[in-house]
Write a structure and sequence with these properties.
The protein is an alpha+beta fold and 119 residues long. The chain has a domain of 75 residues: Translation Initiation Factor Eif1. 34% of the residues lie in helices and 19% in strands. The protein has a five-stranded mixed beta sheet with strand order 3-4-2-1-5, with helices on one face. 18% of the residues are buried. The model has no long low-confidence stretch (mean pLDDT 83).
């Protein structure tokens, strides 16, 4: 039995025994996966807790670090669409009032995947 002198010798031995060689270099040359440019799914719900009985529409699913500017522009567009106040806080878009269906229709039209949350 002979001593192998490195990976090339091991690859030669493997080939001599009838095995296929793997293209190892292509695995390392592949680009690292990038962060998604938009959230995978957004959750639309209505809430009244800790708001003195006032209803708000919540859109959750934006990442604070990755989607900050996108969430701000979505909040601005939805406020204009619904004609209400609201904003972007702690990763959640808030709209004053119950506008779940209108918001869901607009988000779907813009290409976002949505799910309704709550009753």
């Amino acid at each position: 039995m002979r001593k192998l002198g490195g990976l090339d010798a091991l690859a030669d031995l493997h080939r001599a025994m009838g095995g296929e060689t793997a293209d190892v270099a292509s695995d390392f040359d592949a680009p690292a996966p990038s962060a998604p440019d938009r959230p995978s799914i957004l959750y639309v719900s209505r809430d009244r807790k800790a708001r003195k009985g006032k209803e708000v529409t919540l859109i959750e699913g934006f990442d604070l670090d990755l989607h900050d500017e996108m969430a701000r522009s979505v909040a601005k567009s939805l406020k204009a669409l619904c004609g209400v106040g609201g904003g972007w806080k702690d990763g959640v878009v808030l709209l004053q009032g119950d506008h779940r269906q209108r918001v869901a229709d607009w988000l779907t039209k813009e290409g976002y995947a949505i799910k309704h949350k709550g009753g």
